[in-house]
Amino acid sequence: MRNKLFLLTALVLGIVACRHTATEPGPRAYQLDIPSGLPEMPVPADNPLTEEGVALGRKLFYDPILSGNQTMSCASCHKQEFAFTDGGKAFSFGIDGKLGTRNAMPLFNLGYQRGFFWDGGAADIESQVVGPIQNPVEMHADLAIVLGRLNAHSEYPTLFEKAFGTRTISSVLLMKAIAQFERTIVSGNSKWDKYLRGEATLTDAESRGRIVYEDEDKGDCTHCHSIGSTFSDFEYRNNGLDSVSADAGRALITFLATDSGKFKTPSLRNIALTAPYMHDGRFQTLEECVEHYNSGLQHARNLDPSLRNKVKNRLSTQQKSDLVAFLHTLTDYELISNPKFAKP
Amino acid sequence: MLRKLLLTACAGAFLISSCKKSDSNPSPGSIQFSISNEVDGQPIQMGPLNFQNAKGNDYSVSMLKYYLSNFSLLTADGTEVPVNSSYYLIDASLPASESFSIADVPAGAYTKLRFHLGVDSLHNHSGTQSGALDPVHGMIWNWNTGYIFFKHEGSYKDSLGNVTPLAFHYGSDRGYVQVELPLSNLNIDGNTRKITLGFNLNGLYANPIPIDFNLDNNRTSGNRDDVFWEMTMRSNFPGAFQIIKTE
User: Fold this and answer.
1) Structural domains in chain A, sorted by start
2) Do the Cβ atoms of B126 and A252 come within 8 Å?
């Protein structure tokens, strides 16, 4: 009898064990779709992309629960149709109606970047997440209150359990989830990319513009916005907007006077969608940006070496419009229409 | 038979371990820290304009929070013995945060206590940390991945007699401050010692460079205009701490 009982128990235990592994597969790996022309994206070992984590991050990205008075989400200032910028605004309003001091940055190909915000103040995507949530001129929330709301929510504890194996929502997991979603926003299907793959042809103006872009005596854009890949080196540079910058830029982070007025080189991908331009949104059009580099460079003491001694007015009217035509080929319409990045 | 063998083995093991204990090697102990936040000996009461700094400014405290980290002890010959690499967020409104215990302090006779105000650069540039460094404690910057090492918020009476907000937010790699305090022979040998560590807010605002709230009242590390204030705070922090007693 005892032996029989023992066998039975073992059998039951065996079944339970099998069931256990069958019903809890854990989060599934998310396959990043990197278009040809972009490199492999580095993903931190302690925050691998998972289907459940990405889906959770996307829900959080669009959820106003993260702001102080629950009226604004990340997407309020990072709108998909404008390559995740704030649609024509130089500065964005926060929940209290206060204006920020810098232009909302586009969100795509973030996994290739090293520092976040215009001055690189945020060390990684995860750490960046809590900045806007707490900033008084942005979402102005107390993180402890936000975590309280999430932990008391009818869905979030279950979603965090699926993504991270725990129902207890911490700031670290909140940061990880949103960072996972943000890493999946990849842009590499512009007309330019399709042209390289033999799927599209450039117009004459676009082809001429590409030559101006690379010509060292003309556009000379490639020192900072190397052609192809991410269209930026993501370094910090003073691009001669002002002889003395009102915004200390990178120097706010490094405390080095030599970094004064330096800002992160933005990607030129989707640039036609992200007006206005520069850290303070001072230029409304791409034509104004091109004109700045053609004739408007100011001699800041730490003006970037590649912008020193530039011949003024070296671009003809034709060359300027060709250059702008080329910049328009960098727009990725799949980025702004992809339902994977839209509000769930 | 098996039982006998086991028993013998146990007894043997016991003997060996007890032998070890009875030899003359001193064993590690622990230190209980009690932090006394005060203004010239008065305990900090949150709210009223009860305090006056060296410059004669009346002021109050509605929030006082700061990080202490990387504790070590020094022997008479200057050898540094690290005792703990934890981070402690001291909050003058939370008594539980004002006492903590450090275990496994190596045995020895110590003459100095060393610790730091703030978070070292190795841990100052990631937001994805937990415990005392969890961003939930409201001690991280919004625009820069890193920690606010010290916060004093409250109000002061300005030169016209108006009660005006006071807010000091301090913290950056260059503002990580080492504090070293003399100990009157702290002997650790398997025992628990208690150190009462005092933090005097008025010391911070007086020595060696006095801070006048009429000039400095809303200061933040990282702001270009606040650099002088930041350097003043850095030079004043070490003198604001003292060992009140060792038991």
Assistant:
1) 51-187 (1.10.760.10), 203-328 (1.10.760.10)
2) no
